[in-house]
Here is the input.
Amino acid sequence: MHSRASQSSKGAIGIDFGTTNSSIACADGSSDINLARFPYLGGLTDAYRSLLYLQQVKEGGVNTLKSWTGPEGIDQYLAADVKGRLIQSLKSFLSSRSLQSTEVFGRRYTLEDLIARILRDLRKKAEDQFGLSIKSAVVGRPVHFVGAESQEDDNYAESRLRLAFESAGYKSVEFEMEPVAAAQYYESTLDHDELILIGDFGGGTSDFSLVHVGPTVRRREGVSGSIVGNAGVGIAGDAFDAKIIRHLVSPALGAGSQLRSLGKILTVPSWVYIRLERWHHLSLLRGREVLEMLRGVHAQSLEPEKIGALIHFIKENLGFHLHRAVQKVKSDLSNASRAKFQFSDGFVDLEAEVERASFEEWISEELGQIERCVDSLLTTANVLPKDVDMVFLTGGSSFVPAVRRIFETRFGAQRIRGGNEFTSVARGLALKAMDLHLARS
Here is the structure.
């Protein structure tokens, strides 16, 4: 809670670099918190997609590698007749020691290089809007990074994220737990003290914090909040998406189908579909060796049309289109008991009716892990559910009814709050930066 924050001459900056979306906020000491906004599909959005699109283009007869990030990256990707390389969910790889770099169009880039490219654009666009030079920020991080199995793994992931920020031109970066930042945002609306549970559901992680907040705590601590306990699990929106893909998409692309090889009946390799489920891994399937293997499978398959559809899907890099279709049906199921899943690009056409009850059964294992994480936090902190005054849920998956029921069952629906679910972490990080600046002034 007492990390040193950075302060520009005109405002304190908070950055929520997320697995799927990123946000950047500026607090200037007044009651207002400004969020950077970005053009997208004819409108404006405060969610900057955490993606990078690279494409080779001919300029003067010479191949030149160009790159775009965020909403511009999406626009360029959708407009391209021949698709380049769309790279997404880079935050999910930070704890992996095996993934140090990747080759794109014959050039090798470290993971930190790729993340820095996104952060650099995010900073420049925010500088133009806020009218200041951003060289420092308070940055959010999950309680546990995706794939982290120890504190050493978390420290390693944080150090890589710090290096990416430094490569993007940031001179000073301080980290704060994302649910603690969300707690600070919630606290800014309070005129009394509370013990709150913050649930922050991102793309890759679900993080929880028990925090004492309110005017008395602020006066006593000098900064916002008194942490009672933290817990996190590497399961969130991406894991829910994976189950939708497993049940609705993979079977139509050959998962579980058979092939005849040397007189034997074999099953199509399952690891391909595991990559497909993690749609940000899809670009890893576009290598020559994988595609040659799949062409061999296609020639021997008992259902060649499905393997042909899979090869088309990979070659055309349709992961983003699939992600949009999955996100839509997941959102629709949050508002209705049934929804229609639709995906079509003219070659691969998928359509299915989905019951909310079926979706909840698909994600039952993930829901159980979230439940156990929340219960473990309460037990470790020696806090009973009745002692928690309010539960503040933030992040996209907080809208999933089965997720909300976890908290309604334990705390009662009347104690569940939300608001600015996609930007509360960035807002809280900016407030944190301002508070810590004032505390040491």
The longest strand covers residues 51-59. Confidence is low (pLDDT under 50) at residues 1-9.
